[in-house]
Amino acid sequence: MLLDTSGLLCYIHQNELQHQEAVQLLNKASKKSLTHSYILAELIALAWIRRFPRPAVLAFVMDLLDNPDIETIWVEEKTHREAMQLLIERQDKTYSLCDAVSFVLMRQRGMTEALTTDRHFEQEGFVKLLQSAP
């Protein structure tokens, strides 16, 4: 399962409607989960915009990096370029570069599920594990 920005925000913020579901899904994950450096960068920026406590957010990200059950991919030029190509091919969509990197990595790894509320994953044919906020 890919750990996306919105899913991780639901996990760390108890006031998110999907918090309990995110905690349950992540805690019962039977296989190693995956995230990447662009998601972590996006998570930190978005958490700060939402005024989450800075020390708690940074500690959470460091815990993710140290967790043996979560693989963090450090996005290199080849993957970045593949994601850019996907964005060029899907100009009718509003995908972010972070989304596109996720899609590239998920396809490379044969992954189908993402801990996310982002409908873009469904648009690309993946399974969105959390419902979008109303």
From TrEMBL:
InterPro entries: PIN-like_dom_sf, VapC20-like. GO terms for biological process: rRNA catabolic process. GO terms for molecular function: RNA endonuclease activity. PANTHER family: 23S RRNA-SPECIFIC ENDONUCLEASE VAPC20. This is PIN domain-containing protein. It comes from Oscillatoriales cyanobacterium SpSt-418.
